[in-house]
Records
---
Amino acid sequence: MTDATSKLTLADITATARRGGRLVMVTAYDASAARLADAAGIDIILVGDSAAMTVLGHDSTLPVTMDEMLMMTRAVTRVTRRALVVADMPFGTYQPSDEQAVANAVRFVKDGGADAVKLEGAGRSRSRIRAIRAAGIPVMGHVGLTPQSVALLGGYRAQGRSATDARGIYDGARGLERAGCFAVVLEAIPASIAAHITSALAIPTIGIGAGPSCGGQVLVWHDLLGLTEGHLPRFVKQYASLSATIREALEAYAADVRSGSYPEEKHTYGITEPEADAFAAGLPHKDGR
Ligand code: KIV
C-alpha cells in the first residue's frame, strides 16, 4: 500500500490497472511542472520527446537530443516525490541496435533518475524492449500515431482506421506486451479499436486520442493547460487557458514598468545605517555633477 506521498512503484501502477483504476499520465519537462503534476496526484509523468516541439520550438519531435532529454529528465526527477517518471527515448537513440538502446536507457535511469523509459513502434522495437528489460529497466511501448515515424505515416493523422491497419496496431500492441512492456500508449486510433486492444491485453493501455476504454489517459502539458499556439488535435481537452492568463500578466507588468507604477515602496529594501544614504548621495552622477 502507498500513501498519498510515497513514491509509486511499477507494482503500484500495475495493481491500480488490475483493479480497474484509470491511470493518469501527463507530460512535464521542468521542475515547476513536475512539482505541480506531483502535487495534483498524477500517477505517471512522461518527459516526452514532444519537448522538441513544446519547449525547444522544433516542428517535429525528431531533432531533440539525448543530452537535451537528459537535462529535462533530471529537472523532473529532482523534484518528483510520488509519480512514476518515464523518460521518452529520442529518435535515433534506440533504433540502430539493442546495444545502443540499452546504453541510452541506462543513461536515463542512472544519470536522469528516471523510473522507466518509453520508445515508439512495434516490429524491431520489440528486440530493443527485451534488451532494455533484461538490463532491469521497465519499458512503456507506443503504437498508433508514432510521431518519430511522421515521414513514413504521411503526417500527424489518425491510424488504424482500415482493417489492415487496425490489425497491424493490434498485432504490434500484443507484440509489445510479449516483449515485456509494462504499459502501452495508443495514440490517435479509433476508440473501438483501442477498446478491443485494451480488453485483449493484460497490461494497461494509455490512450491519447484513443477513446475512453483505455486503462489510462495521457495529454501533453501545453495542450492540457492552453499553452499551445495554433492547431490542436481533436482529442485534446483544454483544462485552462494559460496562454491568455500569462500574456495578460506580462502586458500588465510591461505597462507598470513603463508607467513607473512598479516597483512600489513595498517592493524595495531599506537601509540599516543612515551613513549608507550619505554614502550614496556622495557618489558621482553620470552628468558629472
Ligand atoms: O512525447 C510525448 O509527449 C508522447 C505522448 C504524446 C504520449 O509521446
Note: The CA atoms of residues 7 and 81 lie 6 Å apart.
---
Amino acid sequence: MLRADALLSRFGYCSRREAAAWIRAGRIRLDQEPVTSPSAKLDPARVLVDGEPVPFVNGIFVALHKPLGYTCSHTPENGAPTIYELLPTQWSARSPAVQSIGRLDKETSGLLLLSDDGNLVHALTSPRRYIQKVYEYRTVSPVPPEAPALFASGSLTLNGEKTPCLPAALEPDATDPCHGFLRLHEGRYHQVRRMLAAVGAPVAELTRVAIGSLQLASLSLLPGQWAPVNPQLFIDAP
Ligand code: URA
C-alpha cells in the first residue's frame, strides 16, 4: 500500500507536491471511486489514473534492442542520443528510475536489459554471478586460426591489465574468417573489441545476441524496440 501522493510520484505522474492538485481534479480513482486525499493508502494495482491502470505496477524489467549510435548514459554525451529516449518518457520520472543492467558501447547494438529494481540490477551485474553473454562480430581483417585456442586457454592478458581474461569461446564462421560469435563469462571494459584487436582482427561491427538463455532473435524486436521479459530467466542463469 502506498500513500496517494507517494504513488503518483513513484510511478512518474507528478511530484508529491503536485499530487494534491491531481487528486482535487478527480484524476485518481481506486476501484472506480474517486480518491479524495493525498494521504489515502492505496494498492497501486487497483488504482486508475485518468481512467488508465498504472503501467508496470510490479516494476519494470524489459529487453531493449539497442540500436547503433545510442549511448547507455542517463545524460546525453556529445549530442549522441541515449537509450532512455527510446523508452516511455514517464519511465524516467519514476522513482526509482529505470536503468540499464550493464552497458553496451555506443557503436555496439543488440540485447540490453533494463529494470527499475535496484536490487535486481545489482544482483545481475555482480561479477560473482556473471551471466554469460554472446556477441556476434564482424572484423576488419581475418581472425587468425589460433585465436579460438588462445581465448579458450585463459592466458590472454589485455593491454594495461594484470590478470588474464577468463576462458572465452570463440566460434569463427567456417566460411568467413571475418565473422563469428564470442561467448564471454566476464565483462571487462570494451572486452570483445580488445580481445579481437589483440589477435590482429579489429572489430568492424558488434552485436550482443544473447544474455544467458535469452536470445535477441527470439524477441523479434527491431532496433529501438523493447519488450517485457521475465526476470526469473536470469536468476540462476549460467
Ligand atoms: N565488448 C565490447 O567491446 N563492447 C561492448 O559493447 C560489449 C562488449
Note: The longest strand covers residues 203-211.
